[in-house]
């Protein structure tokens, strides 16, 4: 797929990669007539799509730039052009991180706008006379983009609460690492 990209001069290749990064970041993507690459329309489209997919799928990983270049090399990117792609990704890494965070945050439409909690003690059930199990009752108030609010009620045992808090801590650390 990326073999045709080898024939593109480095300056045009750099311009094309920056244009693809612009598109990933929510700006105008590159236009076929705007960059003189010498590629046919089919080669151009294939190259732009391959670059876009590799950047969106691989850049958020731990060694994002290297992962993108490796994925592109598996798609036929010549190693000489890998340096051009690497330089562009390094130069625009902050923009890409911010764009990927925005996309990740946009996955869910509803946002938590308030919460409330209380601890309850389950003292018996239909099968056991004495339980004495502490339960946390968590109420999350979610707001939809339309402005409509709804409450979600969750009841968690101590073990479930610990697992829930651990997963929130892991998610928080990952978000902070991406925003750093």
From TrEMBL:
Signal peptide: none
Organism: Salpingoeca rosetta (strain ATCC 50818 / BSB-021)
Stored InterPro entries: COMM, COMMD4/6/7/8, COMMD8_HN
Name of one Pfam family that matches: COMM_domain
Stretches assigned to the COMM domain: 111-179
Name of the protein in its database record: COMM domain-containing protein
């Amino acid at each position: 797929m990326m073999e045709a990209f080898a024939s593109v001069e480095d300056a045009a290749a750099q311009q094309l990669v920056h244009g693809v990064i612009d598109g990933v970041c929510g700006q105008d993507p590159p236009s076929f007539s705007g960059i003189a690459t010498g590629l046919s329309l089919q080669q151009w489209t294939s190259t732009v799509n391959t670059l876009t997919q590799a950047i969106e799928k691989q850049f958020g990983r731990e060694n994002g730039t290297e992962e993108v270049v490796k994925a592109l090399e598996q798609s036929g990117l010549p190693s000489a052009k890998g340096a051009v792609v690497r330089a562009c990704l390094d130069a625009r890494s902050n923009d890409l991180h911010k764009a990927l965070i925005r996309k990740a945050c946009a996955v869910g439409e509803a946002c938590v706008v308030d919460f409330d909690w209380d601890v309850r003690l389950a003292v018996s059930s239909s099968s056991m006379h004495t339980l004495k199990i502490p339960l946390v009752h968590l109420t999350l108030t979610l707001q939809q983009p339309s402005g409509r609010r709804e409450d979600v009620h969750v009841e968690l045992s101590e073990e479930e609460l610990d697992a829930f808090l651990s997963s929130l801590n892991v998610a928080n650390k990952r978000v902070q690492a991406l925003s750093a």
